[in-house]
Amino acid sequence: MIAFKNRKVDRKRAVQVYRNLHDRSGKRRWSIRQNGLIVAHAARFCLRDVHFVVSNAGMKRARKLGHRVVCAYARGTLTSSCMGTDAQGILPVRISFVYDQGFIGTVGPTKYKIKEASAAIFNQHGATAAYTA
Question: Could you give the CA distance from residue 35 to residue 62 in angstroms, rounded to a whole number?
């Protein structure tokens, strides 16, 4: 995790994360926002108690401008590992964001809208695993 402008991440408080749309490093990093400010960038991390949020106003703005803007993010608490997540009765899900549909979870051939997860793993490939109830 790379601090942004020497800001500190309060690991006891929720963060909002989204794909950094302007990352010129080629590393496909995520932006981590807290209290309305970008506090860090990271290539991989875990979140607990995750809520996937889509801003309808952001979607409209993207359509109007004709280019990508941040209109969706995941909100949760940073954690060092998702290994402590209770695996009883939960499924690993690949998550992707689709304009006009929101966050879509995929388990094998089955696709469904996803709004929250007990834990999610984010890396350079996106949100590659989430544990949904």
Answer: 23
Sign of CA dihedral 104, 50, 57, 31: negative
pLDDT tens profile 1-28: 888 899 999 999 999 998 886 766 666 7
> What 3-state class would DSSP assign to 58?
helix
Q: What are phi and psi of 51, to 5 degrees?
A: -120, 130
**DSSP tag of 107:** E
Please give the C-alpha separations between residue 10 and each of 3, 14, 40, 78, in angstroms, as whole numbers.
12, 8, 11, 9
Helix residue ranges per DSSP H, 27-128: 56-65
d(CA 49, CA 36): 19
Burial class (CB in 10 A: 0-12, 13-18, 19+), 75: middle
